[in-house]
Write a structure and sequence with these properties.
Blueprint (H helix, E strand, L loop, with lengths): L6 E12 L2 E12 L3 E5 L6 H8 L7 E6 L2 E5 L2 H15 L4 H50 L5 H17 L6 E4 L13 H11 L5 H14 L16 H13 L5 E5 L7 H18 L2 E6 L2 H7 L2 E6 L2 E7 H6 L4 H8 L6 H6 L7 H4 L8 E6 L2 E5 L1 H11 L2
Parallel strand pairs: 3-8, 3-9, 6-7, 7-8
Antiparallel strand pairs: 1-2, 1-4, 4-5, 9-10, 10-12, 11-12
Length: 394
């Protein structure tokens, strides 16, 4: 894995629990600036929950999420569990040295909880504060050097820029395209209102600017200006998804989370939407987290792929490496399910059934995510790691 590339998003030990259900459990990965990172797995494995946790639709249970080097999400369960364990041990402990160590563990974790809560709650405020300072520095310099004739216009521009900076949130630099293009669009709002909603919330009041921005986004996604006055029910599924994409890119995001954006569309339209996302990535310099269960599409579109199973990341590698050397049995099972275009080959295709209980023996040692080969990570224990290394002999 390249170490010289800029990490835009860092997911660290992400846990998302809903009561006793561990939807996402201890998942970690990095997304580099400008890449398409594919997240695949069967329905219910935690792909969408991971995406929704990143964009703060859910408050995460445990772990950290960093965006542009700043922590935007932080869970506290791991710290609370550490405090609980330390207090439990302390009750029956008579060693004064160990008691002092346990007191330090409790104090450190309490401090971590305090920091986690602050970062989770105030990351947007801190980002807005930074933008306000940058805006003030920029316009104060301009106002010093401007003529008396240009001053009123520049002061108005400064006032507008300051309002936008105060309303801007760091999380708006991440946008999401939802799976269902029907349910994700408000049927009572026009296309103009849907696309421009983020701009209005951000404090932009210039109607002419907003309209021009909406028209620009519509044309960018392959629609026309006349569509701005219509309602979502007047469009086909593919057109609705284009509207959803326009709504997400109008905020000029750096990271786009595409949550199975083509699964609800007709096959002929799927290719159009994928090609559109590819074009937008090049034009706007987007980084994309592409969530899907269709491995053929992910192979075409993604640079690296993470495979999820029952809330865990079981394998992560570059696309070509993953398809050439699938190591985890679940990855092999997924790849064996890809239909082949040749009828003769398709007839001979052997479907691999994955049975986690039969495949793994974790009674002696639990698995962890390990870099078995450079850039190729697999969820395994010592015995399995040795087996994979021997099998591929690289």
């Amino acid at each position: 894995m390249a170490n010289d590339r800029e990490v835009l998003l860092k997911v660290e030990n992400l846990c998302q629990y809903f009561g006793p259900t561990k939807a996402v459990d201890n998942v970690s990965f990095d997304i580099y600036k400008g890449e398409v990172f594919g997240l695949v797995g069967e329905s219910g494995c935690g792909k969408t929950t991971t995406g929704r946790s990143i964009i703060k639709i859910y408050d995460i249970t445990s772990g950290n999420i960093y965006f542009k080097g700043q922590r935007i999400c932080a869970g506290t369960k791991s710290y609370k569990d550490a405090i609980k364990e330390a207090r439990k041990e302390k009750k029956g402990c008579t060693d004064s040295t160990r008691i002092a160590e346990l007191d330090k563990i409790i104090a450190d974790n309490k401090e971590q909880i305090k920091r986690a809560k602050f970062d989770h709650k105030n990351s947007d405020k801190e980002y807005a504060k930074k933008l306000v300072e940058e805006t003030k520095a920029k316009y104060e310099e301009k106002l010093k050097n401007c003529s008396a004739q240009d001053r009123p216009k520049l002061e108005k521009e400064y006032k507008d820029a300051l309002r936008v900076a105060r309303n801007t949130k760091l999380i708006t630099r991440i946008q999401m395209i939802y799976q269902d293009p029907v349910a994700s669009l408000d049927p009572r709002m026009t296309v103009r209102e849907i696309i421009s909603e983020g701009l209005v919330i951000n404090g932009i009041k210039d109607k002419a600017y907003i309209d021009e921005k909406v028209y620009e986004m519509l044309e960018l996604v392959g629609l026309v200006r006349e569509h701005a006055g219509r309602y979502p029910h007047e469009f086909s599924g593919g057109q609705r998804q284009r509207i959803g994409i326009a709504r997400s890119i109008v905020m000029n995001p750096e990271l786009l989370i595409a949550d199975e954006p083509i699964s609800a569309l007709d096959v002929s339209i799927q290719a159009q939407v994928i090609n559109l996302l590819n074009e937008l990535r090049e034009q706007l310099g987007l980084t994309i987290l592409f969530i899907a269960h269709d491995l053929s599409v992910v192979k075409y579109f993604s640079g690296r792929i993470g495979v999820m199973y029952y809330g865990n990341m079981v394998e992560l590698a570059e696309t070509e490496e993953l398809f050439a050397h699938p190591m985890h049995p679940y990855t092999r099972s997924l790849l064996s399910a890809i239909p082949l275009p040749d009828p003769r080959s398709e007839k001979k295709r052997t479907r691999i059934i994955y049975n986690a209980i039969a495949e793994h023996d974790y009674s002696v040692q639990k698995p962890t995510m390990r870099e078995v080969f450079p850039g190729h990570f697999v969820y395994c224990n010592d015995a399995e790691e040795a087996k994979y290394k021997k099998e591929y002999g690289r």
